[in-house]
Amino acid sequence: MTPKQNFAPRVLEWFDQHGRKHLPWQQNKTPYRVWISEIMLQQTQVTTVIPYYERFMQSFPDVYALARAPQDEVLSHWSGLGYYARARNMHKAAQKLVDDWQGEFPMSQEGVCELPGIGRSTAAAILSISRNESLAILDGNVKRVLARYHAVPVWPGERKTEAAMWQLAESYMPSERCGEYTQAMMDLGATLCTRSKPRCGECPLQADCDGLATGTPTDFPKSKPKKAPKPVRTTQMLVLRDGDQVLLEKRPATGIWGGLWSLPEVAQEDDVVQAAEQRLSVNVQHVISLSPFRHTFSHYHLDIVPSELAVKNTAMVAEQTKYQWFELQQALQLGLPAPVRTLLETHEQRRQLI
User: Fold this and answer.
1) In this structure, which topology does domain 7-219 adopt according to CATH?
2) Among residues 253, 308, 313, which one has the least CA distance to residue 283?
3) CATH superfamily assigned to domain 232-353
4) Are 126 and 34 in contact (CB under 8 A)?
5) Where are the domains of the chain?
6) Which terminal Cβ of the chain has fewer Cβ within 10 Å, N or C?
7) Each residue of 309-340: pLDDT tens digit?
8) pTM (2 d.p.)
9) What are the distances in angstroms from CA 224 to CA 127, 154, 161, 340?
10) What is the pLDDT of residues 109-152, one digit of tens each?
11) Catalytic amino acids?
Protein backbone atom coordinates (compact mmCIF):
# COMPACT_ATOMS: atom_id res chain seq x y z
CA MET A 1 0.00 0.00 0.00
CA THR A 2 1.78 3.06 -1.28
CA PRO A 3 0.56 6.49 -0.10
CA LYS A 4 -0.94 8.69 -2.81
CA GLN A 5 -0.53 12.40 -3.39
CA ASN A 6 -2.70 15.23 -2.10
CA PHE A 7 -4.79 13.03 0.20
CA ALA A 8 -5.20 15.22 3.31
CA PRO A 9 -5.82 18.49 1.39
CA ARG A 10 -8.70 16.92 -0.51
CA VAL A 11 -10.21 15.50 2.66
CA LEU A 12 -9.92 18.85 4.46
CA GLU A 13 -11.39 20.77 1.52
CA TRP A 14 -14.39 18.42 1.56
CA PHE A 15 -14.71 18.80 5.33
CA ASP A 16 -14.77 22.58 5.07
CA GLN A 17 -17.80 22.34 2.82
CA HIS A 18 -19.63 19.24 4.00
CA GLY A 19 -18.24 18.03 7.31
CA ARG A 20 -20.28 17.83 10.50
CA LYS A 21 -19.41 20.74 12.79
CA HIS A 22 -22.38 21.06 15.13
CA LEU A 23 -22.40 17.82 17.09
CA PRO A 24 -22.47 18.36 20.87
CA TRP A 25 -18.92 17.12 21.44
CA GLN A 26 -17.57 19.40 18.71
CA GLN A 27 -18.33 22.41 20.88
CA ASN A 28 -15.82 23.33 23.61
CA LYS A 29 -13.48 20.50 22.58
CA THR A 30 -11.72 19.70 25.84
CA PRO A 31 -9.96 16.34 26.26
CA TYR A 32 -12.65 15.29 28.74
CA ARG A 33 -15.57 16.07 26.41
CA VAL A 34 -13.87 14.44 23.42
CA TRP A 35 -12.98 11.38 25.49
CA ILE A 36 -16.58 10.80 26.62
CA SER A 37 -17.82 11.10 23.04
CA GLU A 38 -15.19 8.72 21.68
CA ILE A 39 -16.05 6.04 24.22
CA MET A 40 -19.78 6.42 23.63
CA LEU A 41 -19.33 6.28 19.86
CA GLN A 42 -17.57 2.90 20.00
CA GLN A 43 -20.00 0.37 18.52
CA THR A 44 -22.80 2.99 18.62
CA GLN A 45 -24.36 5.31 16.02
CA VAL A 46 -24.13 9.10 16.35
CA THR A 47 -27.92 9.56 16.46
CA THR A 48 -28.15 7.13 19.37
CA VAL A 49 -25.27 8.74 21.25
CA ILE A 50 -26.38 12.40 21.12
CA PRO A 51 -29.11 12.28 23.82
CA TYR A 52 -26.96 10.04 26.04
CA TYR A 53 -24.02 12.40 25.68
CA GLU A 54 -26.08 15.47 26.51
CA ARG A 55 -27.58 13.87 29.63
CA PHE A 56 -24.15 12.59 30.68
CA MET A 57 -22.61 16.03 30.38
CA GLN A 58 -25.39 17.60 32.39
CA SER A 59 -24.76 15.18 35.25
CA PHE A 60 -20.96 14.89 34.91
CA PRO A 61 -19.72 18.16 33.39
CA ASP A 62 -16.08 17.48 34.23
CA VAL A 63 -13.76 14.68 35.26
CA TYR A 64 -14.12 15.52 38.96
CA ALA A 65 -17.90 15.08 38.84
CA LEU A 66 -17.49 11.74 37.07
CA ALA A 67 -14.77 10.50 39.42
CA ARG A 68 -16.74 11.16 42.60
CA ALA A 69 -20.06 9.81 41.29
CA PRO A 70 -21.17 6.35 42.52
CA GLN A 71 -20.77 3.66 39.88
CA ASP A 72 -24.51 2.98 40.02
CA GLU A 73 -25.21 6.54 38.93
CA VAL A 74 -22.74 6.32 36.05
CA LEU A 75 -24.23 3.02 34.89
CA SER A 76 -27.76 4.45 35.08
CA HIS A 77 -26.71 7.13 32.57
CA TRP A 78 -25.31 4.36 30.35
CA SER A 79 -28.34 2.08 30.56
CA GLY A 80 -29.38 1.11 27.03
CA LEU A 81 -26.06 1.88 25.32
CA GLY A 82 -24.70 -1.63 25.86
CA TYR A 83 -21.08 -2.76 26.20
CA TYR A 84 -21.16 -1.68 29.85
CA ALA A 85 -17.46 -2.31 30.40
CA ARG A 86 -17.01 1.01 28.57
CA ALA A 87 -18.80 2.85 31.38
CA ARG A 88 -17.02 0.95 34.15
CA ASN A 89 -13.63 1.66 32.59
CA MET A 90 -14.56 5.30 32.04
CA HIS A 91 -15.41 5.66 35.71
CA LYS A 92 -12.10 4.04 36.73
CA ALA A 93 -10.18 6.24 34.29
CA ALA A 94 -11.80 9.39 35.71
CA GLN A 95 -10.73 8.39 39.21
CA LYS A 96 -7.19 7.72 37.97
CA LEU A 97 -7.06 11.11 36.24
CA VAL A 98 -8.10 12.85 39.44
CA ASP A 99 -5.83 10.80 41.71
CA ASP A 100 -2.71 10.68 39.51
CA TRP A 101 -3.00 13.58 37.06
CA GLN A 102 -4.77 16.34 39.00
CA GLY A 103 -7.74 15.99 36.68
CA GLU A 104 -5.74 16.70 33.50
CA PHE A 105 -5.20 14.32 30.60
CA PRO A 106 -1.60 13.17 30.05
CA MET A 107 0.22 15.03 27.31
CA SER A 108 1.48 11.90 25.53
CA GLN A 109 -0.42 9.24 23.62
CA GLU A 110 1.37 6.59 25.70
CA GLY A 111 0.16 8.23 28.90
CA VAL A 112 -3.43 8.37 27.71
CA CYS A 113 -3.25 4.70 26.70
CA GLU A 114 -2.47 3.79 30.31
CA LEU A 115 -5.98 4.84 31.31
CA PRO A 116 -8.56 2.01 31.54
CA GLY A 117 -10.55 1.45 28.36
CA ILE A 118 -8.42 3.65 26.09
CA GLY A 119 -6.44 2.18 23.20
CA ARG A 120 -4.13 3.62 20.59
CA SER A 121 -6.77 4.99 18.22
CA THR A 122 -8.97 6.47 20.95
CA ALA A 123 -5.97 8.14 22.60
CA ALA A 124 -4.94 9.63 19.27
CA ALA A 125 -8.47 10.93 18.63
CA ILE A 126 -8.64 12.60 22.05
CA LEU A 127 -5.30 14.38 21.64
CA SER A 128 -5.75 15.20 17.96
CA ILE A 129 -9.24 16.68 18.27
CA SER A 130 -8.78 18.49 21.60
CA ARG A 131 -5.12 19.54 21.32
CA ASN A 132 -4.46 19.43 17.57
CA GLU A 133 -1.75 16.77 17.98
CA SER A 134 -0.55 15.12 14.76
CA LEU A 135 -1.60 11.60 15.73
CA ALA A 136 -3.33 9.22 13.32
CA ILE A 137 -6.41 7.22 14.22
CA LEU A 138 -7.60 3.92 12.80
CA ASP A 139 -11.18 3.44 13.96
CA GLY A 140 -13.76 1.52 11.96
CA ASN A 141 -14.64 4.43 9.69
CA VAL A 142 -11.04 5.30 8.87
CA LYS A 143 -10.14 1.68 8.33
CA ARG A 144 -12.98 1.34 5.82
CA VAL A 145 -11.98 4.50 3.92
CA LEU A 146 -8.35 3.43 3.61
CA ALA A 147 -9.11 -0.21 2.81
CA ARG A 148 -11.53 0.84 0.06
CA TYR A 149 -9.32 3.63 -1.28
CA HIS A 150 -6.41 1.21 -1.67
CA ALA A 151 -8.58 -1.85 -2.51
CA VAL A 152 -6.90 -3.85 0.25
CA PRO A 153 -7.38 -7.46 -0.89
CA VAL A 154 -7.60 -9.04 2.57
CA TRP A 155 -9.49 -8.48 5.82
CA PRO A 156 -7.89 -5.34 7.35
CA GLY A 157 -8.14 -6.71 10.88
CA GLU A 158 -5.45 -9.29 10.15
CA ARG A 159 -2.43 -8.30 12.22
CA LYS A 160 0.09 -7.74 9.44
CA THR A 161 -2.41 -5.84 7.30
CA GLU A 162 -3.53 -3.69 10.21
CA ALA A 163 0.08 -2.76 10.94
CA ALA A 164 0.48 -1.66 7.32
CA MET A 165 -2.73 0.38 7.55
CA TRP A 166 -1.43 2.14 10.65
CA GLN A 167 1.63 3.16 8.65
CA LEU A 168 -0.64 4.38 5.87
CA ALA A 169 -2.83 6.37 8.26
CA GLU A 170 0.25 7.99 9.78
CA SER A 171 1.64 8.88 6.35
CA TYR A 172 -1.56 10.77 5.48
CA MET A 173 -1.75 12.64 8.81
CA PRO A 174 -1.05 16.36 8.18
CA SER A 175 1.07 18.51 10.47
CA GLU A 176 -1.57 21.27 10.59
CA ARG A 177 -5.34 21.24 11.15
CA CYS A 178 -4.85 17.83 12.77
CA GLY A 179 -8.08 17.83 14.77
CA GLU A 180 -10.16 18.86 11.78
CA TYR A 181 -8.51 16.21 9.62
CA THR A 182 -9.25 13.53 12.23
CA GLN A 183 -12.88 14.62 12.38
CA ALA A 184 -13.00 14.77 8.57
CA MET A 185 -11.85 11.15 8.22
CA MET A 186 -14.49 10.03 10.70
CA ASP A 187 -17.15 11.99 8.83
CA LEU A 188 -16.03 10.70 5.45
CA GLY A 189 -16.48 7.11 6.58
CA ALA A 190 -19.73 7.79 8.43
CA THR A 191 -21.53 9.81 5.76
CA LEU A 192 -20.06 8.98 2.30
CA CYS A 193 -17.80 5.93 2.39
CA THR A 194 -20.40 3.82 4.17
CA ARG A 195 -20.42 0.05 4.39
CA SER A 196 -23.31 -0.26 1.92
CA LYS A 197 -24.48 2.22 -0.71
CA PRO A 198 -21.42 4.49 -0.58
CA ARG A 199 -21.94 7.89 -2.20
CA CYS A 200 -18.83 7.67 -4.37
CA GLY A 201 -19.94 10.48 -6.69
CA GLU A 202 -19.63 12.96 -3.81
CA CYS A 203 -16.33 11.67 -2.44
CA PRO A 204 -13.25 13.91 -2.67
CA LEU A 205 -11.09 10.80 -3.23
CA GLN A 206 -13.03 9.28 -6.11
CA ALA A 207 -10.52 10.21 -8.83
CA ASP A 208 -7.91 7.72 -7.64
CA CYS A 209 -9.90 5.37 -5.42
CA ASP A 210 -8.78 1.83 -6.27
CA GLY A 211 -11.94 0.32 -4.82
CA LEU A 212 -14.15 2.48 -7.03
CA ALA A 213 -11.99 1.65 -10.05
CA THR A 214 -12.86 -2.05 -9.65
CA GLY A 215 -16.53 -1.20 -10.24
CA THR A 216 -17.57 -2.88 -6.98
CA PRO A 217 -16.32 -0.62 -4.17
CA THR A 218 -18.46 -2.37 -1.58
CA ASP A 219 -16.21 -5.43 -2.00
CA PHE A 220 -13.80 -3.47 0.18
CA PRO A 221 -12.91 -3.77 2.96
CA LYS A 222 -12.96 -7.54 2.84
CA SER A 223 -15.14 -9.18 5.45
CA LYS A 224 -13.78 -10.87 8.50
CA PRO A 225 -13.65 -14.65 8.02
CA LYS A 226 -16.93 -16.08 9.22
CA LYS A 227 -17.11 -17.70 12.61
CA ALA A 228 -19.40 -20.51 13.61
CA PRO A 229 -23.00 -19.43 14.31
CA LYS A 230 -23.52 -17.77 17.66
CA PRO A 231 -24.54 -20.19 20.40
CA VAL A 232 -27.93 -19.78 22.04
CA ARG A 233 -28.43 -19.74 25.80
CA THR A 234 -31.74 -19.68 27.64
CA THR A 235 -32.64 -18.22 31.01
CA GLN A 236 -35.79 -17.55 32.98
CA MET A 237 -36.13 -14.00 34.38
CA LEU A 238 -38.39 -13.39 37.35
CA VAL A 239 -40.30 -10.15 37.78
CA LEU A 240 -41.08 -10.52 41.49
CA ARG A 241 -43.47 -7.85 42.71
CA ASP A 242 -44.94 -7.07 46.09
CA GLY A 243 -47.44 -4.30 45.52
CA ASP A 244 -45.53 -1.49 43.80
CA GLN A 245 -42.13 -2.98 44.63
CA VAL A 246 -39.94 -5.17 42.42
CA LEU A 247 -36.97 -7.29 43.42
CA LEU A 248 -33.65 -6.64 41.68
CA GLU A 249 -30.30 -8.38 41.87
CA LYS A 250 -26.95 -6.59 41.76
CA ARG A 251 -24.77 -8.20 39.09
CA PRO A 252 -21.09 -8.95 39.81
CA ALA A 253 -18.70 -6.10 38.99
CA THR A 254 -17.31 -7.92 35.94
CA GLY A 255 -18.84 -10.02 33.19
CA ILE A 256 -22.10 -9.60 31.30
CA TRP A 257 -24.04 -6.59 32.61
CA GLY A 258 -21.34 -6.10 35.22
CA GLY A 259 -22.35 -3.75 38.02
CA LEU A 260 -25.93 -3.31 36.77
CA TRP A 261 -29.15 -4.12 38.57
CA SER A 262 -30.96 -7.01 36.92
CA LEU A 263 -33.85 -9.38 37.53
CA PRO A 264 -33.26 -12.67 39.34
CA GLU A 265 -32.68 -15.55 36.95
CA VAL A 266 -33.22 -19.29 37.21
CA ALA A 267 -32.24 -22.11 34.92
CA GLN A 268 -34.40 -23.06 31.98
CA GLU A 269 -35.49 -26.33 33.57
CA ASP A 270 -36.31 -24.89 37.04
CA ASP A 271 -39.82 -24.49 38.37
CA VAL A 272 -40.08 -20.73 38.87
CA VAL A 273 -42.34 -20.91 41.95
CA GLN A 274 -40.19 -23.43 43.74
CA ALA A 275 -36.98 -21.58 42.82
CA ALA A 276 -38.35 -18.24 44.00
CA GLU A 277 -39.66 -19.58 47.31
CA GLN A 278 -36.54 -21.57 48.14
CA ARG A 279 -33.87 -19.10 47.02
CA LEU A 280 -35.54 -15.77 47.72
CA SER A 281 -37.64 -16.51 50.81
CA VAL A 282 -40.95 -15.33 49.36
CA ASN A 283 -44.45 -16.75 49.22
CA VAL A 284 -45.73 -16.79 45.66
CA GLN A 285 -49.40 -15.82 45.30
CA HIS A 286 -49.77 -16.26 41.54
CA VAL A 287 -47.70 -16.40 38.33
CA ILE A 288 -48.16 -14.81 34.91
CA SER A 289 -46.12 -16.19 32.03
CA LEU A 290 -44.82 -13.40 29.79
CA SER A 291 -43.80 -13.58 26.14
CA PRO A 292 -40.30 -14.99 25.56
CA PHE A 293 -37.86 -12.89 23.54
CA ARG A 294 -34.25 -12.92 22.37
CA HIS A 295 -31.46 -10.52 23.34
CA THR A 296 -28.28 -10.72 21.27
CA PHE A 297 -24.77 -10.10 22.58
CA SER A 298 -21.65 -9.86 20.47
CA HIS A 299 -20.82 -13.53 21.01
CA TYR A 300 -24.10 -15.32 21.79
CA HIS A 301 -27.91 -15.08 21.76
CA LEU A 302 -29.78 -15.09 25.04
CA ASP A 303 -33.36 -16.38 24.90
CA ILE A 304 -35.24 -14.88 27.84
CA VAL A 305 -38.33 -16.58 29.25
CA PRO A 306 -39.88 -14.10 31.70
CA SER A 307 -42.46 -14.70 34.39
CA GLU A 308 -44.19 -12.20 36.66
CA LEU A 309 -44.69 -13.43 40.23
CA ALA A 310 -46.90 -11.69 42.78
CA VAL A 311 -45.37 -12.45 46.19
CA LYS A 312 -45.78 -11.77 49.90
CA ASN A 313 -43.44 -11.96 52.90
CA THR A 314 -40.53 -10.19 51.29
CA ALA A 315 -37.95 -10.44 54.09
CA MET A 316 -34.74 -11.75 52.54
CA VAL A 317 -32.30 -14.08 54.26
CA ALA A 318 -29.47 -12.01 55.75
CA GLU A 319 -26.69 -13.21 53.49
CA GLN A 320 -28.54 -12.32 50.30
CA THR A 321 -27.41 -8.70 50.30
CA LYS A 322 -27.15 -8.62 46.49
CA TYR A 323 -30.96 -8.53 46.34
CA GLN A 324 -32.96 -5.38 47.03
CA TRP A 325 -36.57 -4.26 46.76
CA PHE A 326 -37.27 -1.04 44.86
CA GLU A 327 -40.33 1.00 44.08
CA LEU A 328 -40.89 0.50 40.37
CA GLN A 329 -40.23 4.12 39.42
CA GLN A 330 -37.07 4.07 41.52
CA ALA A 331 -35.93 0.88 39.79
CA LEU A 332 -36.35 2.50 36.38
CA GLN A 333 -33.83 5.19 37.40
CA LEU A 334 -31.09 2.61 38.03
CA GLY A 335 -28.51 1.21 35.66
CA LEU A 336 -30.43 -1.64 34.03
CA PRO A 337 -29.69 -3.97 31.09
CA ALA A 338 -31.87 -3.11 28.10
CA PRO A 339 -34.06 -6.26 28.26
CA VAL A 340 -34.64 -5.78 32.00
CA ARG A 341 -35.69 -2.18 31.45
CA THR A 342 -38.10 -3.35 28.74
CA LEU A 343 -39.67 -5.91 31.06
CA LEU A 344 -40.10 -3.40 33.89
CA GLU A 345 -41.54 -0.72 31.60
CA THR A 346 -43.97 -3.29 30.19
CA HIS A 347 -44.96 -4.25 33.74
CA GLU A 348 -45.53 -0.59 34.60
CA GLN A 349 -47.70 -0.05 31.53
CA ARG A 350 -49.75 -3.14 32.34
CA ARG A 351 -50.13 -2.08 35.99
CA GLN A 352 -51.47 1.33 34.95
CA LEU A 353 -54.16 -0.33 32.84
CA ILE A 354 -55.47 -2.35 35.75
Assistant:
1) Endonuclease III; domain 1 (1.10.340)
2) 313
3) Nucleoside Triphosphate Pyrophosphohydrolase (3.90.79.10)
4) yes
5) 7-219, 232-353
6) C
7) 999 866 654 445 789 999 999 999 999 999 99
8) 0.85
9) 30, 9, 12, 32
10) 999 999 999 999 999 999 999 999 999 999 999 999 999 999 99
11) 38
